[in-house]
């Protein structure tokens, strides 16, 4: 079997790339380890920034794939129990959206499949082979247990942080840059309607966040130590901690449907390609969730890679492909810098345990500057909208 691009992984990066290639008339096959049901229900990110929304519009897909509600240019901070709405200045009120990741994924799958895309679920033991040779291959076992091999021009590794693609690159060819923030988030999904799109609390018990996930549910985040265990967090303890950090009781404390611990870290792998294998999204980089940029960076990579492949296939011009890693890394580091700054700011400003009073005062000063300086406000807005 032959194709132009084998895409490993059908998360946001892989599916977006697949759709962009399909619209460009370029053959591709998407291989996904999980079932369609599993992928369509996996809940994660919730923010599509203005840059990403504009990208879907430019590829002619915005109406078909983007769901959710428009993003209001207001963040609600709660500082020591007092609400401080923050309105950011932006020239592009554009199209940013609160769109749950699984809604985007579901729409991307629907569009890809109904437009004739080749998407194979439950592909086991996916293995990229001969990635530096002239015709790389991807071997896998299909859902009926038959081993298959697809020969291709390019392999797109869109299989996340624990995938096989990055692992198939010799270790000495990649540099891993990483930073641990020293704490985790307990992320909780609950049937609790939010009367705002977002609320972020700075408090000396630690950071807390609430983000609307549709009209009836919210995703809550609670800063906690790295060595805590999910079992230590009973529902009562969670609600008590949320009330304390927000400084007022949450009106509806509905059923909690999931609790997960996420250590906050930043990771960048450099370069983002090796031979004919290109890494996209979480396979290449992780940003702390405070920034809401993980999904948006994955979408950016898909945009850059699809345009590069199109140029190579249609015009035999390899320049964009050769620049792929450098182009993406420049963007990734820009948003890593933003993500690290915002993560430190929001946690240090409430911190009495981790970094101490000096860092706390610096963070509070930077926080006030967002309100006092239009320049600071504008820069923050540029990062939130993804237009920096
Ligand atoms: P993924 O969405 O992870 O997709 C990778 C795909 O590859 C998956 O479908 C996987 O099943 C498949 N795969 C893996 N291994 C193989 C294999 N060997 N063979 C075939 N297929 C394989 N970002 C935000 O912006 N805001 C948030 O609030 C937020 N919360 C998050 C919460 C959690 C618990 C996690 C894990 C991430 C969160 N993120 C958030 C990050 C965001 O979800 C990711 O950055 C985004 O999903 C990256 O997309 P991706 O396509 O690169 O990877």
TrEMBL record:
InterPro entries (alphabetical): FAD-bd, FAD/NAD-bd_sf, PheA/TfdB_FAD_monoxygenase
SUPFAM superfamilies per the UniProt record, alphabetical: FAD-linked reductases, C-terminal domain (SSF54373), FAD/NAD(P)-binding domain (SSF51905)
Key words of the record: Oxidoreductase
Pfam assignment, any one: FAD_binding_3
Record bears the keyword Oxidoreductase: yes
FAD-binding domain mapped to chain residues: 3-336
Domain of life: Bacteria
Protein's name according to its UniProt entry: 4-hydroxybenzoate 3-monooxygenase
């Amino acid at each position: 079997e032959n194709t132009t691009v084998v895409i490993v992984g059908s998360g946001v990066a892989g599916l977006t790339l697949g759709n962009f290639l399909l619209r460009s008339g370029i053959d591709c096959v998407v291989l996904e380890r999980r079932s369609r049901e599993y992928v369509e229900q996996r809940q994660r990110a919730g923010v599509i920034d203005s840059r990403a929304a504009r990208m879907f519009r430019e590829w002619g897909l915005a109406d078909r794939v983007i769901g959710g509600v428009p993003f209001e240019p207001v963040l609600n901070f709660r500082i020591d129990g007092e609400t401080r709405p923050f309105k950011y200045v932006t020239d592009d009120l554009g199209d940013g959206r609160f769109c749950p990741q699984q809604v985007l994924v579901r729409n991307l799958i629907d569009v890809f499949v109904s437009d004739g895309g080749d998407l194979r679920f439950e592909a086991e033991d996916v293995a990229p082979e001969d990635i530096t040779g002239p015709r790389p291959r991807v071997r896998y076992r299909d859902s009926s247990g038959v081993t298959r091999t697809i020969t291709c021009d390019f392999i797109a590794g869109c299989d996340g942080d624990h995938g096989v693609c990055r692992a198939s690159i010799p270790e000495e060819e990649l540099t891993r840059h990483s930073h641990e923030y020293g704490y985790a988030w307990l992320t909780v999904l609950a049937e609790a309607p939010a009367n705002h799109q977002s609320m972020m609390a700075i408090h000396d018990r630690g950071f807390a966040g609430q983000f609307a996930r549709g009209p009836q549910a919210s995703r809550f985040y609670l800063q906690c130590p790295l060595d805590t265990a999910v079992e230590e967090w009973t529902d009562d303890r969670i609600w008590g901690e949320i009330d304390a950090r927000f400084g007022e009781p949450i009106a509806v404390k509905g059923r909690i449907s999931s609790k997960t611990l996420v250590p906050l870290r930043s990771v960048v792998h450099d370069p983002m390609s090796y031979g004919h294998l290109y890494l996209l999204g979480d396979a290449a980089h992780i940003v702390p969730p405070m920034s809401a940029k993980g999904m948006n960076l994955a979408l950016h990579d898909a945009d850059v890679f699809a345009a590069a492949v199109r140029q190579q296939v249609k015009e035999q011009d390899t320049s964009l492909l050769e620049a792929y890693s450098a182009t993406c890394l420049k963007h990734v580091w820009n948003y890593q810098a933003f993500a690290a700054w915002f993560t430190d700011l929001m946690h240090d400003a409430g911190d009495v345990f981790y970094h101490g009073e000096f860092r706390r005062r610096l963070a509070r000063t930077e926080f006030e500057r967002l309100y006092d300086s239009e320049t600071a406000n504008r820069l923050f807005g540029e990062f939130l909208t993804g237009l920096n």
